[in-house]
């Protein structure tokens, strides 16, 4: 009887063995090789600035606009991403002191000729990549690429910036050049209205920013 039981137990164990082999193997990892999760630093609108300059044949205008909210993604001591929301209702003109003319120009910028602010009260920028930049005369250390959305239209833009993280504060500063016609802002553009003459407004405008975000 014992002679029959032992072979039976041996056969049973052999048939059961594949069930153990089907268990997933534990992945071996080396400390430091796994990519650490990024930490979100909150943008501080009250400490951050955003200025704009628009040029025309006969001169230029400049002003400010405010960040509404946002976050900067930080891994270690490096900025690796970020999303920024701009309050279009905060748009101001600074170079015109006469209130009536200032209000008129701001009203024009708010209209469908420009930013359609009543329809699109916010603009957004989302970083898609950052690449190291060396030898920049203005001290910029990164090329920032991201998706800019104005009037519901999203386009990719790139610009140089100075970025860094220190003592729980992430910062980024620089100037981005934006072609307004790509966002359906064609008013006064010589690219679309050739006979406009000295009333032409340049297609490009610039946005100078200084972003402060805290952990």
Your description of this structure?
The chain has 215 residues and is mainly beta. It has a single domain (39-214), classed as Lipid/polyisoprenoid-binding, YceI-like (Lipocalin, Beta Barrel), CATH 2.40.128. Helix content is 15%, strand content 49%. The chain contains 2 helices and 9 strands, in the order H-E-E-E-E-H-E-E-E-E-E. Strands 1, 2, 3, 4, 5, 6, 7, 8 and 9 form a 9-stranded antiparallel beta sheet that branches. It is globular and about 55 Å long. Residues 1-34 have low confidence and may be disordered.
Task: Reconstruct the topology from this structure.
Layout: H1 2-21, E1 39-43, E2 49-56, E3 59-75, E4 78-93, H2 99-110, E5 122-132, E6 142-150, E7 153-166, E8 169-179, E9 201-214
């Amino acid at each position: 009887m014992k002679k029959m039981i032992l072979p039976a137990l041996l056969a049973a164990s052999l048939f059961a063995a594949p069930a153990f082999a089907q268990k997933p193997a534990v992945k071996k990892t080396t400390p430091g090789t796994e990519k650490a999760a990024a930490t979100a630093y909150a943008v501080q609108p009250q400490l951050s600035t955003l200025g704009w300059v628009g040029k025309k044949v006969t001169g230029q205008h400049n002003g400010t606009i405010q960040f509404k909210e946002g976050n900067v993604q930080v891994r270690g001591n490096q900025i690796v991403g970020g999303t920024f929301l701009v309050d279009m209702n905060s748009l101001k003109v600074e170079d015109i002191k006469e209130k009536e003319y200032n209000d008129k120009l701001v009203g024009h910028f708010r209209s469908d000729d420009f930013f359609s602010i009543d329809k699109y009260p916010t603009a957004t920028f989302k970083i898609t990549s950052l690449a190291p930049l060396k030898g920049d005369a203005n001290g910029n250390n990164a090329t920032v690429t991201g998706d800019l959305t104005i009037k519901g239209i999203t386009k990719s833009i790139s610009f140089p910036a100075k970025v860094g993280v220190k003592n729980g504060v992430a910062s980024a500063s620089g100037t981005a050049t934006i072609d307004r016609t790509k966002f359906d802002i064609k008013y006064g553009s010589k690219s679309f209205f050739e006979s406009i003459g000295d009333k032409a407004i340049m297609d490009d405008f610039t946005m100078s920013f200084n972003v402060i975000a805290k952990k």
